[in-house]
Every structure is written in structure tokens, then in C-alpha cells.
Amino acid sequence: MIGLLRSLGVAALLFGGAAQAQAPATLSPTFDAVRARGHVVCGTAPNLPGFAAVDSRGAWSGLYVDVCRAVAAAMFGDASKVRYVATTTQNRLPMLQAGEIDILASNTTWTLTREASLGLEFTGVTFYDGQGFLVRRSLGVSAARQLDGATVCVQPGTTTELNLADYFRRSGMRLTPLVIDTLEELRTAFLGGRCDAYTIGTAALAAFRAGLGEQGQDFMLLPDVISKEPLGPVVRKGDQRWFDLVRWAGFVPLLAEEFGITSANAEARLDDPDPEVRRFLGRSGGFGGMLGVGDDWAFQIVRQVGNYAEQWDRNVAPLGLQRGVNRLWTDGGVHYPPPAR
Questions:
Q1: Membrane-spanning residues where (predicted)?
Q2: What is the pLDDT of residue 341?
Q3: How do residues 51-60 score in pLDDT, each as one tens digit?
Q4: Is 140 left (phi over 0), alpha (psi -120 to 50) or beta?
Q5: Are 206 and 324 spatial neighbours (Cβ–Cβ below 8 Å)?
Q6: Residues 331, 324: Cα–Cα separation, whole Å
Q7: Backbone dihedral region of 64: left (phi > 0), alpha (psi from -120 to 50 degrees) or beta?
Q8: Considering only CA atoms, which of 187, 193, 152 is closest in space to residue 45?
Q9: Whole-prediction pTM value?
Q10: Which end of the chain is more exposed for a tag (fewer CB within 10 A), N or C?
């Protein structure tokens, strides 16, 4: 009798687990609103070439912009179904909290405070960065330790500002911060000689210098990196279905690169005999239904937005940045997407 009860108990657990795995995801206010609206509202920076920028024709591009395009491709089968909203370091998190944007995909660092106290949640890491310093070559410094007493341009309300103060305090150096909220005004102040150094993530510094053309040769990035800056998309906490979709839309380009699937060969790979590739591209597994979208969701992302290497080459490589830690784990980097199975 005891053996029979144990068997029934195990069967019930197994059945319950299977039923739970097949159950539809709970309703999500953001997911449902985006679906009804017909497009994603994406908050991002307008002035970070290679990562998030808008040109004179109103066209947006960049590695962070591709995050939102991927989500739209997954949900609607159309990567163009995105409305972009320009954000600043001061208003970006409040706008997300207030529901004015569906995703924040910008130069935003994943930190404990932002996730534990603001009602927000990071879905992953798009770009691993670190804070650095840009200086004029004529300043005659070659390391951050030589910036004692320097005036440093920095944006307020950012992890950059906190890291800067911590670094100078820890190093026993004197600091005069020049705090300006608007990025363009901050850069103008730096170019005008109002500060000795400009600090932000090294990628943003490289993008800024690249945008200066020949004038960029007058400036140098110091070799010091003073912080960890994992940058990724942010959504409101407690909206699980939307969180799942944004998170896995971010993993797809990395998985596609692992599989060698590109925007050019994605259609040909639909008939690939590899069972893992077939599951990934929606030929089996039914993963789209688990996320509330079509089973070809990953295929649409790769076909329309490309894998991570394609996105990097299109957006970031022209800045002269090496992938470094942003390579796949199979190539000595830290990008390690979980399996889609």
C-alpha cells in the first residue's frame, strides 16, 4: 500500500510538473499593452554613435537600438514596429517607472540599488563596459593616477559620478567635478577646456572621439578602467511575461552566433538536421507559445536584426573598439547565453 501511494505521489508530481510547464504564462500588463498598441516604445539615448543614435532623417541605429528591434521582431515579426523615445540620464529610470516607455535600452548599468529599490529589473547584459577617462594629449598625462587635482566632466545621477568620487577618494587624490546633466553640453564643456578629463564608459568615450573626425587625434583614452559596467535592457519588475520575452530576445543574437546562423543564412538553416538548431529556429519545441509569440520568433530576430557579431560589426566595430570581453565564451569572452531547450 505504501509503495502504491508513493508511486501515485510521484506520478502526481510528474503530471503536475508537466501541466505546469505547459500552462500559459500569466497575463502581463506591459505585454498586453504592447500587443494591443502594435509597437514597442523604446527609451534610449539619442547621442551615442554605435550604441544609440538618431540621424538627421530621424533614423535610429546602434547596439542598444537593436535590442528593441529584436523584441519587435519576436512579437510582431517586424523589427520596425518600434517607437523610440530619447532619454537622458536624469529622466530615463523615472520614465520607465511611470510606464512612459516599455523598455529602457540605453547606457544603463545593472546595479543592486536600481534593481532592489526602484521596482525595475535588468533582463541581461548587452554590453560589458568599464568607466574610463578621455584627456587631451597636450595635458601630458598617461594614467588616471596623474589626475590629482583635475577638473573632470561627469553627468549627475549616474553610476559614473559615484565611481569617479570613489576612485579619487580611494586613491587619495583631489577632485573637482564639473557636473552637467545634458550630454551635449557636457561634451562642449570638455572640448572648450573647462575640464581636464571627461569620464564615462570607455565605449561612449570611443564613440565620442570617433565622432570628432580628425580633431579626435588630439585626445587619448587613458588605459585605466575604474569600474565594472554591465549595460543591459531594463523593464518594470513584476511583469513576468514581458520580462521573459525581452530577456530571451537578448539571448537570441548570442545563440545565433554560437550556431553560426546569420541574417543571410537563417532561411537556409531552417532545414538544418541539427535538433538544437531546429528547436532554436522554431521548427520544433513550441518555444514561441511559451513566450506568447509565434514559434518563428528567434528566426525573425536573426533574419531581421542579425546575430550579435553582425550587430557588433554594423554598429560598434566602426568606432575602432575590439570585442574583448564581449566575445562569446567559446572565444574567450564572457557572453554565455543559456540553452534554448
A1: none
A2: 86
A3: 999 999 999 9
A4: left
A5: no
A6: 10
A7: alpha
A8: 187
A9: 0.85
A10: N
